[in-house]
Amino acid sequence: MSRKNRKNDDLLLLNMINEKLSKTNETFDDNNNSNNTVKKNKKDTKKKNINIYQFVEPESEESDIELTPSISKSSTGIENTPTPTPSNSKISLSSKKNKKKKNKKAKKQSSIANSINVSSSDNDSHGEDEDEEDDEDIASLLKDIQLSNKYKSNKKDDKIAPATFEIDSLLYDPGYTKIYSIYSQVLKNLFSENSINYKLLDFETELKLLFDDLSDELLNEEVESSLPFMKNLKKIIKPWGVKKNGKELVPQGKNLTKELSFSHVMPDFIPTWLPDFQIEKLVTDSYFLENWELERTDDWKELIKEDYKKIKETIDKTITYYKVMPNNFESVVKVNSEFYLNIQLTQDVEAFIRQCRQPTNYYNILFNYQLIQTLIIQSSNIDQNSDRFPEINQLLNRCIFIIDRSLKKKFEFNGLNQLPYNYFYNRIYYLVFLQYIRILNSKGLYRTVGEWCKVLLSLSPLEDPMGVKYFAGDCWIKSLDYHWLIKLSKSGIVSKYKEWKCVNILLPTLLAFIRLGDVDGLKKFLKQNFFVTKDDSNIILKESQYILGWSLKQFLNVATKRSECIEKNKYISDYYILSLELYLQSYDNTWTNDEITKLDNILNKFEMLDNNFTPKKDRNQISNAHFIKSIPVNFVRLNHITSNTEIISKLNNLFDRSDMKDYPFDPIPNNDSSFEFIEDFTNKKLLSALYEGRLMNFDEFMQ
């Protein structure tokens, strides 16, 4: 652990440990053995001179990443498996360095302990071996202290409490009009400074932390091309991949350069002077009015304009909307026309592959993503056991490079810079990000996955087109980012609309409270979200609490083996049942039996409940810009993209495919005409000529 004042390091360690031991009597410890241990520790701490170091203050901690490879116990007494741990200190993972540091630290600590009379009779008999074991306990205790201290500090950042949100239903507010008065403040609080660790967006950061002896040669999977023209291009096009202050540079013309934020120039990449894509700023007025007129079909245009005037000043000054566009539009239209012919009209895979091999299409993200989709379909999965995994991985790295190069120099993922999903190339970016997250998750890079989930959510927090809320909760649990998960669940991005308060994000939040040992916070969160109390006057809130309370009971029944499946409830709509079934597919990857038992015990002891409330039976079959028969479009989209056959089969029973537009790069686009499609980037006359030529060649071949 790095500190400026090295002399006070061991004194600080002992002081922090004494404070930790005095606070270990948590209500989670139900058995007598743990209670006896806590009492014994308290007696021992009374004998020590606890206040002797009260004037010793720690230096400011650096914001970085800590990885603890050993198995440790949190303040709840639950064992945590070896996973990357977020923290504010640096720890080297080299085993040789750790052994040297442990030996030096053990000797130094034993001398200090003797000088302040904090020693026991067992030290003489066990010697240095026990010192090393104590050193591991110290590391474990310090990790818990850092987590608890960080949690306390993060509580202060929540400027808007959940109780201040007047919950509504998105079924009757397709334009999200009820949240815009507080939207910018919610985003600033949620994506505040240091919310996203930009270093971890580069997957090599976590790899180097996990494997301290990795070299750059081992990290680069691609072999450098030996083709003469590649070597000549790299000599001409400079700087290409040159590092400056740890960042790789690429040219943006002959006089401009761009620092890559989260991608790398792989050795086999073809050097180019200019990026193939760029992002353009949209005019907020026209964007809002066009979309609201299409989404709010039941409202007059005058009313829509009046509503926009109320939020115009706040939104226009804080949030910026961007649209991804190709740099050379004319050439892209010609290429896309041939692409559309090969993929959509004739399904000529050989012609498509020949087109992909052309150097001009090397950095065309549309071609790269289509190749990724083809390989995923061929391999039937996206994990590392697939034979196609190296090709998928290589293509995704190229796509991420294309995206990184297209972003503006000071583009931040702070929720205030957004890419609306209804634009064609914006959607390709979203689809690439989702598949990239799946690849990183298959590699076990959970910290990197957690940061990318935040990025994906920040690009369109209200619409959440990729359904981040339905899968990212488990990702943040695996990355031990408990504070962010709690912060998100309390924010308006989850608490404002009934449909957003899904079990897929709230159940992992309960687990985050358990992992942090915050019993009071857990009970308060349960009461606010899962139980219908007599004090609630908002009918929509009561319905939400009833639905979530039923879902929680069903989850515990299945998890504790009291029931094999979900019991049907006539007051619960299909959407909430399917959401719970989606979560039950993967909950056992994050929850332990002890954690499930503890939550079940707390739930049984909870009081102040009103079980007499029953909501109105949900018979809504609303279809609008964001719903298909009252089921959110992003929920349907996520399951289709990830090929979740179990959920898809049940969705198909609820509505047929005629309810959804058939589209090659998004099977479930929103039901409004503001969507851009690939046809908007093709030339119909050229497409007709190419198609006729293809038919003539086919006739000649048949003759």
Helix-strand layout with pairing:
Layout: H1 9-21, H2 32-47, E1 64-67, E2 72-73, E3 79-80, E4 84-87, H3 95-115, H4 122-126, H5 128-155, H6 183-190, H7 203-210, H8 216-219, H9 228-236, E5 242-244, E6 247-251, E7 257-259, E8 277-281, H10 284-295, H11 301-318, E9 320-326, H12 329-345, H13 349-356, H14 365-379, H15 389-406, E10 417-418, H16 424-442, H17 446-458, H18 472-478, H19 482-490, H20 492-495, H21 503-516, H22 519-529, H23 539-559, H24 574-584, H25 593-605, E11 627-628, E12 631-632, H26 633-641, H27 645-654, H28 684-702
Parallel strand pairs: 9-10
Antiparallel strand pairs: 1-4, 2-3, 5-6, 6-7, 8-9, 11-12
Describe this structure in words.
It is a single chain. By secondary structure, this protein is mostly helical. It is globular and about 75 Å long. The strands form 5 sheets. Strands 5-6-7 form a 3-stranded antiparallel beta sheet, with no helix packed on it. Among the domains are: 6-154, no CATH class; 483-661, no CATH class. Residues 1-7, 21-97, 99-130 and 141-163 have low confidence and may be disordered. It is built from 28 helices and 12 strands. It has helices at residues 9-21, 32-47, 95-115, 122-126, 128-155, 183-190, 203-210, 216-219, 228-236, 284-295, 301-318, 329-345, 349-356, 365-379, 389-406, 424-442, 446-458, 472-478, 482-490, 492-495, 503-516, 519-529, 539-559, 574-584, 593-605, 633-641, 645-654, 684-702, and strands at 64-67, 72-73, 79-80, 84-87, 242-244, 247-251, 257-259, 277-281, 320-326, 417-418, 627-628, 631-632.
